[in-house]
Inverse folding.
């Protein structure tokens, strides 16, 4: 369904339109939120944020607006996730006040050189993962990006969890060979 | 090859790769997806019911009128009953008292007691009946203190987040073209400070004199505060949207447009050294100080169209007018 068709459906049958919108963009929103919150929040926090994103979109969406729905939904997801992350960090007391004496001792542990190298490595890794072919590519993404267990992956790719584990270990070996061939350093 | 290493690298993907993963891979199974959808519907229904209840109470003039008349009628009856009861109890305790109305003069030629006609008017001091809601009592303490610290402030009550309890907005007098604003909300039997004497709560409290400044605008139907503000003759322009969260904080989205960064840094070279502006990475669009595409920027802007916000919902009053307007 195109965005224009979704907009028409939202005008004529709002509930159906919202369901369609949800079905199309659910994975998109979840991924964006997951990426921001995976190191800070629990699975429940991520789901709560996804719910808030869609409630916000359904409340504010204007079917007459002819701009990109995907862009709008992506933006809402990103910023809801950032705000949720800040709230979670505040709760976990991971913030330090400017006035505190310790503040001056804090320094960034970012190393620009390392970051650039990491970024290049990520690009090579993603290329190699996509060359593994299905269902191994999906299994690798589900396992190492989404941190899903074999049982959870089995619900998605419709394979037995034991088969998932076997495929995962074989795919890792192939991945290592491919990365070494591209002079990938660990 | 370490699996942790792969995880770490995959969490480091750029925006483009993230979108690719988001578009091509399922993130949960269908059962979880359905569960989430049901929760979305429940939350939306709950919000809709809440806003309908508030609409019925506040937004329909006829219902408002009927509701006010009903409330006034009930309050009057209650007061009359209470006054009558107190008066009756007082009378019972005062029977036989010499200070009752005495209206007889007895004159006698011999050893008489003369009683002079006295008209005594007794006044009954009644304790004011507490009808003031708790939030108002709490807000009044803040107003009183504010008035001591900043004479000539102006005050307003308005339900920004549409939860049935108005927020308190105070603007203190200022030499700038706008005033520092304080915003308070009341929940869980306490006041939460959302803004404390903020000049539009930007990155810095110090505004550039001469910039074009507008006041806060409130959305009449949604939980949203909006303002826009230009810096450096509009070379940087911000549209700021804030909502009051259920945790009683302000959640902010700042849309920024930078139009001529070369002129900006040429005219104001010290900005290059200022950390507040280190988010600027060329002309373009930013959301919460991160560069974004024009498409994303326009999408958000249109969904929160500033024209839907109203300038006229806030009815500011001086301190004395504010006190007079409140129920006793």
């Amino acid at each position: 369904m195109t965005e224009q068709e979704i907009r028409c459906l939202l005008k004529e049958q709002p509930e159906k339109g919202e369901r369609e919108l949800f079905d199309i963009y659910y994975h998109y929103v979840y991924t964006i939120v997951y990426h921001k919150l995976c190191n800070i929040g629990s699975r429940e926090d991520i789901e709560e944020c996804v719910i808030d994103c869609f409630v916000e979109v359904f409340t504010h969406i204007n079917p007459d607006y002819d701009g990109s729905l995907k862009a709008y939904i992506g933006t809402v997801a990103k910023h809801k996730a950032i705000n949720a992350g800040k709230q979670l960090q505040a709760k976990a007391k991971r913030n330090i006040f400017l006035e505190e004496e310790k503040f001056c001792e804090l320094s960034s542990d970012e190393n620009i050189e390392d970051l650039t190298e990491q970024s290049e490595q990520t690009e090579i890794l993603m290329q190699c993962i996509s060359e593994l072919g299905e269902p191994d590519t999906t299994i690798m993404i589900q396992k190492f990006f989404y941190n899903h267990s074999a049982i959870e992956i089995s619900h998605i790719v419709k394979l037995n969890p034991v088969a998932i584990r076997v495929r995962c270990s074989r795919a890792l070996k192939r991945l290592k060979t491919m990365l070494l061939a591209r002079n990938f350093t660990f | 090859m370490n699996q942790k290493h792969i995880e770490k690298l995959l969490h480091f993907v750029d925006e483009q790769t993230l979108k690719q993963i988001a578009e091509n891979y399922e993130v949960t199974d269908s059962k979880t997806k359905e569960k989430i959808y049901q929760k979305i519907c429940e939350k939306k229904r709950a919000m809709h019911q809440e806003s309908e209840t508030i609409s019925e109470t506040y937004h329909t003039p006829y219902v408002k009128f009927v509701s006010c008349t009903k409330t006034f009628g009930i309050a009057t009856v209650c007061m009359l009953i209470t006054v009558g009861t107190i008066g009756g109890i007082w009378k019972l305790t005062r029977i036989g008292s010499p200070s009752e109305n005495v209206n007889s003069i007895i004159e006698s030629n011999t050893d008489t007691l003369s009683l002079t006609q006295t008209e005594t008017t007794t006044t009954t001091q009644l304790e004011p009946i507490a009808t003031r809601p708790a939030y108002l009592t709490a807000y009044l303490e803040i107003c009183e203190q504010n008035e001591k610290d900043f004479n000539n402030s102006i005050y307003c009550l308005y339900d920004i987040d549409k939860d049935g309890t108005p927020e308190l907005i105070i603007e203190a007098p200022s030499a700038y073209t706008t005033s520092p604003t304080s915003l308070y909300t009341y929940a869980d039997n306490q006041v939460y400070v959302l803004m404390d004497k903020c000049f539009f709560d930007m990155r810095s409290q110090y505004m550039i004199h001469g910039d074009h400044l507008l006041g806060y605008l409130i959305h009449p139907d949604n939980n949203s505060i909006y303002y826009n503000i230009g810096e450096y003759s509009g070379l940087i322009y911000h549209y700021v949207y804030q909502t009051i969260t259920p945790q009683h904080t302000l959640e902010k989205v700042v849309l920024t447009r930078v139009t001529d960064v070369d002129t900006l840094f040429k005219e104001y070279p010290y900005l290059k050294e200022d950390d507040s502006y280190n988010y600027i990475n060329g002309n373009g669009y930013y959301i919460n100080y991160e560069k974004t595409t024009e498409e994303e920027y326009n999408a958000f802007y249109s969904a929160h169209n500033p024209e839907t916000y109203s300038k006229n919902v806030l009815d500011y009053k001086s301190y004395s007018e504010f006190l007079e307007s409140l129920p006793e």
